[in-house]
Each structure stands twice: as C-alpha cells, then as structure tokens.
C-alpha cells in the first residue's frame, strides 16, 4: 500500500513537475544533438581534406593504385563479416573498411568505393596529388602533367602549376563575363522582346493595333534584335577564348586525360596546404556556397537562389498574414457578439492549425492557381494565352498558401494579447472621449503588438520550414531567374522560385549521386536553421522593443 507520506507527495503535484522537467530536458538534449550533428557535418563539408594514394590489392591478387579522400570507416565483427561472405582469418576479430571518394566519375563511372584495410599494402599523401574541382562530373584526382592550348603544350613539369593557375583565373573571368552577358544583357533583351510580343497581341485583341503602333513596336524590336546580334557575336568570341586552354592530367591508373579549362572551377593541392591555406580555402568555398548558383544537378556550387527565394517568400507571407490575422482577431475579441457562432469560429480556427500542410498545398493549387490565377489571366492577361501568367504555380500563390496555413497561429496569439489588456484601459480611453475605433487604434493594438509579433514569429518559424505545400504551388528544383531582378516591374510575383527546404529534399532524395550530395544536405539544413533563427531574432527584437515601449501603460 502507498503510505500517507507518499500519497501526500503525489497529491502535491511535485512528481508532475519533475516529469515535466525531465521531458523538457530530454527534448532540449535531442534538439541540441540534432543541431550539433548537422553543424559538424555541414561545416566540415568545405574543409579541404588530404588526398591519399593507396597501393591496394584486389581480390584477384593484382596490385592497384587508388587516389582519393577517406570519407567514412566501417568496422564489422568477424562473425558478421563471414555471414556476409567475406573470407576472414582465424586471428581477425574485425573487418575494417574505408569509404574512399575516388572522384573521376567520367572515367570510372562512380565517385566512391569501399576498400578493406587489410588489403592496403601502402598508404601515403604525395605532395603532387591535385584536386580539380569541375563544373561537371565532380572532382578529379590526379597529377598535373602540362597545360595546353591550340598551339600545343605551353607549360609542363614544375612550370605547369603556375601556368595552370593563371589560365584558370583568366578562364574564370571569361566565364563571369559570359554569365553576365547571358543573364543580364541578353536576358533583359529577351524579356523586353517578350513584352513587345504581348503588347502587340493585346492591341490585336482589343482592336487598337494601328499602323503607328505597329511601326513603334517594330522599330523597338529591330533595335533590340540588332543589340542581340552584337551580344551574340561577343558571346561567341568569349566562348571560343574559354575553350582554348586545357589541362593534361594523369589518373591513378596511369591514363592521361585532357580536361578543358572551361569546365574547371579551381585547382589545388591539399596535401601541401598549411593550416592557414586550408582556412583560406575553407572560407572561399563557404562564400561560394552562400553567393553562387548551384551546378551539377544541385550537388555542387552554391545555393543563393534558394536562400533568396526562402527569405522573399517568408517576407511576402508575413506581409499578407499579419493584417488578415490581426483583423480577424480584433473582430472576434472586440466586435463580435460572444456566443455560439463565435465559439464555433474559434474551434474552427484551432482545428485549422492541425490540418496537414499538404492539404493546404492541394487547396492552393486548386483555388489560388487554377481558379483565381486562371481568371486573372482571362481578365487581365488574355494576350499571354495559351501560356499562363498567374494561372501557374509561383511565389505569390506559395506565399498566400503559407499565409493561409499560418493564419490560425496569428489569430490565436493576437486574441490572447488582446485578452490580456485590462478593461480599465479601454474604459479610460472611452471616458476621455475617444471612439471605440480610436481606442483600438491608438491604445489597444499598440499594447497588443508584442503578442502580434509573437504570432508572427511562430508563423515565420513554421512557414520557413514547410516543403509539402510548396511542391504544388511554386517551388522548383532550379529556377532560371530570380523573382526579383532589374526588369520592370522588378518583383515578378508569377515566377517560380527555389526554397531551402525543397533543396534539401531534392539533393538528399532525388539526386542521382546521393553519396556525393550528402554533405551538402547537412550544410543546407544548417543554413535553413540559421535563416529561421535570423528571421525570428529580427521579430523578437522588434517585439521586445514594443514590449518595453508599452510596459508603463500595462502597469
């Protein structure tokens, strides 16, 4: 039987306090563990690891040389290894295997290989081993033999390294110029030509296509085409210059491979780098990750478009959800007659918070994209038919869908904030001659602003990490252009966009080379967490300032 002392202790509620504390502690430990995991794996992705040369014995007894980085180590007990089909000696207690990133996918057909430690006859890190980071086919591991151009070999031996670095710098400058011409200059011309086509089509539909309008459009079109041809000529010259030079390298098998410099991003020797050299390389790679566009099916390069799309979508969502959420909460708390219908609406709002996010995505696709967007196209953009303008997924519909998803959070938080404001403050304002609307605008809402910001913080935290609804209403694997650019009207709400959450899903589960992409998944996940923390911190700072401002009134 339970003693009276124990029964008193149980009735005091102390056990539940300890259980709650234990649950909170366990949750914090798990969250910290996950954050530490993605931090270590994500940050370490950019560190230049040493490249080893393995003198390795194949199963047929033939000796083979392998170049690569040690990525992972596996230890299997002898009994389990024998069951798996490995021949284990009696004195072997464990089978140790290394996962080696061998690169050279265009030569060998794979990036990674597992080898057994017992079959490694010799392992060292030769200083001449080089890593060539490429735009296609991943890394290349080998030794640099010579630098060539159309006329032949221009440098070899010891002089080849500096010549290669100079040529790479020159080729990268040409690549940047090509990118600028294609995306900025030619992109702007193509955009303007499309606008002229739509303008002409609209005038035809409305019966306003006069001869003067035709002449004006054709004159501008002729000028744009002339400029387009000039840029194409310049672009052809730049492409020709970028294809002039190449690197002659030797693989671990002894084969000599020619790599065009147009496909090379950088060339370095990690085995001869000191600590400061590796730190410099690390920050260069980190900067590239944050500011460049992705390449190699999103498994290499940067993720700037995904960062930009995530932040822009969250900001648009916040601008949409805040006024609607606040207005709904103000009506329910300040104006609506409290009764059965009001309670029913509150129950419905609370239930909406528990609806799976993919349901919102289906609703957004069906209502916002097809019905609302389709009608907008028919009414305002008939010239774009049959190609849809707003009747297709885009950042506007994604933002509105997430605003609908997070609306219950803002409503509930705002209502709680309004409920905490003493009734005496409202009565005092009314007694001084203010109307109910003036009281609400000048006194109640400013005092409830910290609660409104709390709802917005929760909305941002949920919206920034959502992926399922976005797959239906606007997010894509690779967006050709950003929703915000230098072409009028500058913010293109109809465009599709990239998102960090979807980028993680795509790279981690849809990539043709999952092993190579795995470190990038951790790095992107860490960045997504930091983006959410940054957005929340900004909102928290604003909320705290508002709280301090109106603390005296609350007292």
Overview of the molecule:
This protein has 555 residues and is α+β, with helices and mostly antiparallel strands. It folds into 3 domains: 52-129, no CATH class; 144-291, no CATH class; 308-554, MetI-like (MetI-like fold, Orthogonal Bundle), CATH 1.10.3720.10. The chain is built from 17 helices and 13 strands. The chain has helices at 4-11, 14-43, 78-83, 105-108, 159-206, 211-242, 275-291, 304-335, 340-352, 357-380, 395-420, 423-431, 436-465, 470-473, 500-509, 514-549, 551-554; strands at 52-57, 63-77, 94-101, 112-116, 120-124, 129-134, 140-149, 152-156, 246-250, 256-260, 264-268, 294-295, 300-301. The strands form 3 sheets. Strands 6, 7, 8, 9, 10 and 11 form a 6-stranded antiparallel β-sheet that branches. The protein has a 5-stranded antiparallel β-sheet with strand order 4-3-2-1-5. Strand 7 (140-149) and strand 8 form a beta hairpin. It is flat, with a radius of gyration of 31 Å.
Instruction: Find the structural class using helix and strand composition.
Output: alpha+beta
CATH class of the largest domain: Mainly Alpha
Number of domains: 3
Point out poorly predicted stretches: none
Percent range for helical residues?
55-70%
The CATH superfamily name of the largest domain is: MetI-like
For this structure, the CATH topology of the largest domain is MetI-like fold
- Overall body shape: flat
Count helical runs: 17
Our Rg estimate from Cα atoms comes to: 31 Å
Mean pLDDT: 88
Query: Which H/E pattern describes the elements?
Result: HHEEHEHEEEEEHHEEEHEEHHHHHHHHHH
What separation lies between the terminal Cα atoms?
51 Å
The main β sheet shows up as: 6 strands, antiparallel
